[in-house]
Structures are given as structure tokens and as C-alpha cells.
Amino acid sequence: MLRASKSTESAATPGGGGPASVSQSVTLSHELVGVNRSSSIDACEFGRQKSSPMTENHIVFNGNIGNLSNPLHFPFNTWPGVVKLKVDVQDEDSDGYDQVDHYEYQYAANLLTRELDAPTKTLRLSGSKTKLNLEMKVFCDVNYYGPQCAVHCVAADDDSGHYTCDPITGQRICRFGWEGDDCLTDVDECKGHRCYDGATCIDGIGYYTCLCPPGRTGVVCNAEINECVSAPCSNGGTCRDLADGFSCTCPPGWTGHRCDTPVLTCRPDFCYNGGVCYEASGTAACSCPWGWTGLHCEIRGLGCSSSPCQNNATCSDMINGYVCTCQDGFSGEHCEIKTNECESSPCLNGGLCLDEHLGFTCICQAGFTGNTLDKLLSAYMFVW
């Protein structure tokens, strides 16, 4: 209720002695509408509520109507479509209860909804001695729907079902990916969706996935993968994209799917730059000339890094190459030549020269000694 007022006449004393403060109560009830229905305030299928006495002549209702909470609630099980609102205003004094005014109003609503969306009807009721302003609206309780609020629906997304509720009818609406009366059946999304080129369709909850075969990509596997983009061919091989993979054309000396396996037998073009091919331990190898290295003698020598000096010689990198410092007894560019110490005839006085690993040895004639037989022995005679 919004507000109420009463005339001073309704508050006059029975003896006519002028205005007096008389308590009045308000009773509201609802009943079904039909033929031969009673106007009695006590005929109330939907409930009856009576306030405690109020003495004010003009009342603006806030949270209470006398002892009642404002607004008043009248619950029902099934909405009939139309009800009759009845209001009694009564004086309450020592002489008992006297009816001051009686109001009736038929309220109809065909499409009920939740409280926030329910329309409000404003009533301005005027009687012989009182006036009432009030608002009415009818709505379904939470989780109840339909024109009579008779459909019960609680949204779910668990083992009991996967659905929401239509805000008007309360009908279950299956969530995406579910079907059936209780929305417990997983929709097979693979039906009506095509995975191309032999791909396998995997059904999910509300979606599907295509597992593509080799060489295919995309949501439905309708795009070809260019395997050559990743440069899979090694050692200078040339890549050719295929429907389900790739093929490598290998350069001389290499074989295998990715050109990563060296050729195992000698061929005329196996060694480059004058290298000589030989086979050892089941594979081919190259003996490279000076200045070249690598499996096929394809890499120019990098100075001392190729260990060109032999017989424990010392290698020194130079601007245009390297220099080998030979150990005693060796010579040559790479110290690969052993020196013949006897070529210079170091043994004197007819001695015999023997060339050795690190020098020479002289075998002396009688009467000579020394490294080169250059000393004459002295003779002594002892007499006893």
C-alpha cells in the first residue's frame, strides 16, 4: 500500500460531539472470481491479512501497515488468471467494529514472469469516507514459470542435466553440445561435419576436432603442408614437396631421406680438388692434397688447424699459410723427410758411418777414437 486518508466525518463520535481520534484497521483478502461469489472479506482462497488499528487521518505507508510488513504478500499454488481484491476499512472503538468502507477490484494477468519483470498496477480507490492508493503485481516465485506459475525449472550443468530455463515458459533449453529430455546426451558434432582427405573426426562437448594425416593441416584438414618450408634436406640437398611429405635430391657424396648419410663406396666424383678416394671400414673416405680438408676434400685447409706438420714438428700460422719447424733429423715442407746424417761423410780416418734416428754413429779404424774418429790413440808398454 502507498497511502490512505479518511474524512473527519468518519472519525466523529457517535453522539455527534465533533471530531475525535478513532482507530481504523485495514483488511485485505483475495478470492476467486465466479458466479455467486461472496463479497465477505472472509471469503479468501488466496489469504486474508488485517492490520492493527491506526489513528492517523493521513498515512503514507513505508515499511509497515500497522503491524503488517509492507508490501503484503499473498502466496498461491496455481495462478487462475484473475482474482478479486477485497478491502475493508473498519473503525475500532469501545462499541466494537464498524465498517467504514468496502472496496472490490478484479485483477487479471495472463502472462506471469519473474518479480523484476512483472508489470505494476496502480489502484486509486475512493469510498464514502476513505481513500486508498495501492499497487498490485503478480509474479512467479524463483524457479517457477508459465502462465500459471506451475512449471518448475532449475538450471543445471552437472550429472542431473545440462540446460537453462526459458524465462517465459520454463521449458528446458539444452546447453550447447547436449540434447535429450534431460539434456544428458552428448551431441555428436562429427555428424554433419566433414574432415577432409582421410582425417579422423574426434567428438567433444560442443565441438569436434579433425586429426589430420601427414601432409595436411587446417581445422578440417583441407590445406596442404609445405614440408620444404623447414628446409629438411641437409648438405645442400634440393627439397621437393609431396602430397604426404617431401623428397630430397642429394648432391654427390650424400644419400638418405634428408641427404644426411655419406655415400659408402668410392665414385669418380666422390673426392674433390685432387683428393684420392679409398674405402675403409665399410665406408668411403678421401685422402686430400695439401691445402684441402673435409669429407670430400671440399674445404680449403685452414693453416695449422689441419695439423699439416709431421714428426712432432712445430706449426706456426702465417698470413698466407703456415710454416713447420722440424725436429733434428727431419726436413721438408711438412718435416716429412728424415735427414741422412752420413751424406756429409762425418766419420774421418776411414771410419764407417751408420745413420740413426737422431744422428749417426762412427765405427773407427784401429788406432782412432772420438765421435768422428779424429783422435789418435797413444801406445804404452808395461814391463813386470
Structural account:
With 384 residues, this protein is mostly beta strands. The protein has five domains: 132 residues, Immunoglobulin-like, CATH 2.60.40; 34 residues, Laminin (Ribbon), CATH 2.10.25.140; 35 residues, Ribbon (Laminin), CATH 2.10.25; 62 residues, Ribbon (Laminin), CATH 2.10.25.10; 37 residues, Laminin (Ribbon). The chain contains no helices and 37 strands.
Fill in the keyword field for this structure:
384 residues, mainly beta, Immunoglobulin-like, Laminin, 4-stranded antiparallel sheet, 37 strands, 0% helix, rod-shaped, disordered C terminus, DSL, Notch_Cell-Fate_Det, ubl conjugation
**Terminal residue distance:** 167 Å
Give the overall form: rod-shaped
- Structural class label: mainly beta
Domain module count: 5
Main sheet?
4 strands, antiparallel
Q: Helicity range of the residues?
A: under 10%
Strand content: 35-45%
Assigned CATH architecture of the largest domain: Sandwich
The strand count comes to 37
Count up the helices.
0
Mean pLDDT: 80
CATH C-level label of the largest domain:
Mainly Beta
Radius of gyration: 59 Å
Identify the strand order in the major beta sheet.
4-1-10-9
Regions with little confidence, pLDDT below 50 for 5+ residues = 10-21, 377-384
Task: Say what the CATH topology of the largest domain is.
Answer: Immunoglobulin-like
Which helices and strands, and how do they pair?
Elements: E1 3-6, E2 23-32, E3 48-50, E4 58-60, E5 64-65, E6 68-69, E7 82-93, E8 96-108, E9 121-126, E10 130-136, E11 144-145, E12 151-152, E13 156-158, E14 161-165, E15 172-174, E16 178-179, E17 185-186, E18 200-203, E19 208-211, E20 216-217, E21 223-224, E22 238-242, E23 245-249, E24 254-255, E25 261-262, E26 276-280, E27 283-287, E28 292-293, E29 299-300, E30 314-318, E31 321-325, E32 330-331, E33 337-338, E34 352-356, E35 359-363, E36 368-369, E37 375-376
Antiparallel strand pairs: 1-4, 1-10, 2-3, 2-7, 5-6, 7-8, 9-10, 11-12, 13-14, 14-15, 16-17, 18-19, 20-21, 22-23, 24-25, 26-27, 28-29, 30-31, 32-33, 34-35, 36-37
Domain EGF-like: 186-222, 224-260, 262-298, 300-336, 338-374
GO molecular function: calcium ion binding
Disulfide bonds: 140-149, 153-165, 174-183, 212-221, 250-259, 288-297, 326-335
